[in-house]
Write a structure and sequence with these properties.
mainly beta, three-stranded antiparallel β-sheet, 2 helices, about 200 residues
């Protein structure tokens, strides 16, 4: 009985992470947890993420809400073309996890997540002015050793692509509570609906 209940909870957690990552079996943009189109939520209010002048690159990075289920976390990463020129998007954003002083934490960044995106392939597309792309950062809040201090990331440094300067954004709903796994997974960029 307990095993069936645990399996059902795990299936619900993965289903929620699929919705957060914007992945569906056909490779299109999925629905968010509330049933609204993925990416329909507005960007976070991180400093420099959703207000002020458009960066020189013409694209702005912002974060959505952190979704959590059974120790797994998923954080949507958005890329909005706020400029006047098309921006070529491809592959994965370059991501680093930073501490509260803005310094890099020793965190392994893995590209892709077979458990969530089914090994979705990278795509290349053009982000036109006013359009949005979506990625995601996934991790587990797992503590397996009492002799290793749990890691909390305060912000992310995200480089959207070649020729675009990295931007630092902080989750508006708390730190990246990595436990002592020391690992995050990054999903590839995919087209999304503008918020």
């Amino acid at each position: 009985m307990r095993t069936r209940r645990s399996a059902a909870l795990a299936a619900a957690a993965v289903s929620g992470l699929l919705a957060v990552s914007g992945c569906v079996a056909e490779g299109g943009v999925g629905a968010g947890p509330s049933g609204s189109p993925a990416g329909a939520r507005g960007p976070s209010a991180s400093p420099g993420a959703s207000s002020g002048a458009c960066p020189e690159s013409g694209v702005r990075v912002s974060l959505g809400d952190t979704e959590a289920a059974m120790g797994q976390r998923a954080l949507s990463v958005f890329l909005d073309n706020c400029g006047s020129r098309p921006f070529e998007v491809g592959g994965y954003p370059e991501v680093a996890v930073l501490d509260e002083r803005g310094e890099d934490l020793e965190v392994s960044v893995r590209l892709g997540s077979g458990a969530v995106d089914g090994g979705a392939t990278r795509s290349e597309f053009v982000l036109r002015p006013g359009q949005r792309a979506r990625s995601g950062v996934l991790w587990r809040n797992t503590v397996t050793r009492s002799d290793v201090v749990a890691t909390n990331g305060a912000s992310l440094r995200v480089a959207p692509g070649p020729g675009a300067a990295p931007q630092t954004v902080a989750p508006h709903d708390g730190p990246l509570d990595l436990g002592n796994t020391g690992t995050v997974e990054v999903l590839p960029w995919a087209p999304a609906q503008a918020g």
